[in-house]
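Before going further, learn to read the protein records used in this course. Taken together, the tokens spell out the fold as the letters spell out the chain. A record is reproduced here so that you can trace the correspondence yourselves:

***
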Amino acid sequence: MDPRKNSDGTSKIARPLGREQRRWPRLPSSEAEAPDPQDPPALAPLSFSTRDLVREDQFGAWQTLLAPLVEVRLPDGVFPSDGFPADHTAWNLGSMLIVQQRAPAYSYIRSDTKLRSSSIDHWYVALLRTGRAWTEVDGRVALGKPGTMELRSLGHPFRGRTTESESLFLYLPRELFEHSAAALDAKNNSTLSGNVANLLIDYISGIEARLHALSANDLPRIVHATRDMIMACFSPSKDQTAVAEHLAGVALMERARRYIQGNLDAVDLTPDTVCRALGISRTRLYQLFEPNGGVSHYIQRRRLLTAHAALSDPEETRRIIDIAEAVGFNSAANFSRAFSKEFGYSPREARNAMAVPRFVHSISAFERDTPHSFEDWLKMLGSWSKSA
């Protein structure tokens, strides 16, 4: 046994409190997806750390941060004066919060009293990268560990404890699952492992790696795809092969959409080029995009939606023909004809109106009164999902 490790595999080596460390791993430049200059990043993280506080105040600050969700306590034999170096970074996708968390060991409880005083009843998915967690709901304990996913409702009391850990949490409003509420309620405090869990973990990790580059147009697609994958993973179906195939299809669809969005300016963007880029057959591609009216229709619509967003931006100074060429149209007449057919008015009218397009899920509406705390984000999550 490694003398530097505890019995549960966690490190005995304490991190120095006086030195700032990088909060999250930095991806190599080849893995990080650079934002399209015409499609600017939409997200700014809400970061919190206790590391800059004096040791005696660190745990109290952590209690305050998590107070909207749970009451937290230190393990037996540990005191506030020992310090509590922790990091918490939240990303708001409008209808979903993604939280990266690193913290020492603590226990937590969401009591009946807390529920009566809180309007927050979201679902959350927990992914532990390191450490262990034990959570009890109605006498049933779920074990969280690396390689597993946990599903839990904030509308139901629970209690538990966690070792020193690094975790990722997804918070999703109950309204996103309104058509599957009963099925999901039956899975409260479930733990998922195996191949299906790994597919979901890989998908979520892919989103996490690109949070800095996501545009406003990306957000609703990602939220809805994530919801569908969670439902597929935690559905009552015992056919794990069918679930895995469904998840693989959702992930492939997201890859296809991302490739198309990143190559809208290419005149030769066709079903064949998409097939070659993804390494799939035309038949498989057509199956993916059949609900969207076919891949060619999807490409043209994405081009027109992107052009509409640019024309409706008061700060956009490019000529209409330049915008048309930037989204793959090589003829002003073809662009004007397709645009008018799609929206019922001309590109010139769209520019003159300076109207925000209804089809774009923009976060600017709630950024005008941007909440300044994690609690505010949690409370507004349901409201944003209704307006999305």
About this structure: The longest strand covers residues 123-130. The chain has 14 helices and twelve strands. Residues 11-38, 355-370, 384-388 have pLDDT under 50 and may be disordered. Residues 36-213 form a domain with the Jelly Rolls fold (CATH 2.60.120.10).
